[in-house]
Amino acid sequence: MLKKIDMNPQKSTLYKYAQLLADCKRARLTGTRGADDIYNLQILDCIESLKYLPDTGKIIDVGTGGGLPGIVWAVYRPDLSVVLLDSINKKCEAVQEIINSLGIQNAKIICARSEDFAHDNREVFSLAGAKALASAGVTAELLSPLVKVGGKLITFKGERVHEELSEVNNCWLKLGLSKPEINYYAQDEGNSSKCLVIWEKIKSCPKEFPRRTGLAGTKKFWE
Description:
The chain contains 8 helices and 7 strands; from the N terminus they run H-H-E-H-E-H-E-H-E-H-E-H-E-E-H. By secondary structure, it is an alpha/beta fold. The chain has a single domain, classed as Vaccinia Virus protein VP39 (Rossmann fold). Strand 1, helix 3 and strand 2 (about 80-85) form a beta-alpha-beta unit. The radius of gyration is 17 Å and the shape is globular.
């Protein structure tokens, strides 16, 4: 059980969220076990991304899994409309139960592949993000078709970030994106490799994207 400490309403909700994730029996929603570890190793990471959220509009968390970072965004930014997207029905049902338990009104879970969802929701989001979806290049391909020009893409990365970015050979403009910006953060001195990778959507994504389901992970757009 999480330690009871003084906290603001948002943190109180997120501590409850960590407990719900730890107790979930319907599906394995996070690789981290135990409510304290989930809060300290997962939720605090997501809080680092709050400063990059837009002033207004709709945002989407792709491959949300247990709801990270989308639920954190929704809790701290009730003025934004948050979509949590995942393709695994069992996870979606579990996350919906968590949203209901927390009383979150500005988030909804949608069960679909991102490629399919993007065809009907092309370039409508002010920001698209992902925490543990794929390599940086594959993540950018999946997120870009969802984001309007002037919006942002964001993903969480670790020590392999430069390797993942360099393999794309600065071909980001093929997706309508700027070169990525790396912003490091750390919850403690031993985790200095933690970072957020952020792209600006500088022009419309070509109509060839999204490609058919699964192709982004097998045939790289930059090759």
